[in-house]
Amino acid sequence: MISITGKVISGHGVASGKGKDIRYPKGTLRLQMPFFKERGLDLSAFFVGTINIDISPYQFSIKNYKYYFKEINWSKYIPPENFYFFEIQLIFKESVFNGLIYMPDPKTKTDHHQISNLFELLMPKIEGINQGENIILKLKEDDFNFMIKSP
């Protein structure tokens, strides 16, 4: 496992439904979860929303993944998407939480693009975690290549 320090940042709010996208009033995750479950990934233990972590100054490329789902046709508003999931641990205030990195494939994602140094995490409900908090992520060393983003 490798450790990376990150900072909680605000996201689009679309995964949880807090972003007020009229196409997805209850959030995109609620619509996607049945498709993931039928392919073997049950996300019911996690909060229905993501925690967005800025890992600056690092950027990453994918080497391996825990799950990959191709051409999930979960929305009538956009074309089918591919999704990656990676195992991760988040350490916050000396507590360890197990979860997943949720990553719509940038090649198939048409809406709500993310910065290239962001991880969206699926976690159980974590009390007291807020925007601006510093956290530690523990990831499998073989899942990503990390590089420093040049200015």
Task: Give a concise summary.
The protein is 7% helix and 40% strand. The protein is built from 1 helix and 9 strands.
SSE layout and pairing:
Elements: E1 2-9, H1 28-38, E2 51-54, E3 58-62, E4 67-72, E5 81-92, E6 95-104, E7 118-122, E8 134-139, E9 144-148
Antiparallel strand pairs: 1-2, 1-8, 2-7, 3-9, 4-5, 5-6, 5-8, 6-7
Mean pLDDT across all amino acids: 90
Termini gap: 28 Å
Spatial strand arrangement across the major sheet: 1-2-7-6-5-8
Number of strands: 9
By DSSP (H or I, 4+ residues per run), the number of helices equals 1
Query: Could you state the order of secondary-structure elements as H and E?
Result: EHEEEEEEEE
Major beta sheet, specifics?
6 strands, antiparallel, barrel
Uncertain parts:
none
Secondary structure: helix percent: under 10%
Determine the structural class based on helices, strands and strand pairing.
Answer: mainly beta
Strand content: 35-45%
Q: Give the overall shape, derived from the CA principal axes.
A: globular
Gyration radius, to the nearest Å? 15 Å
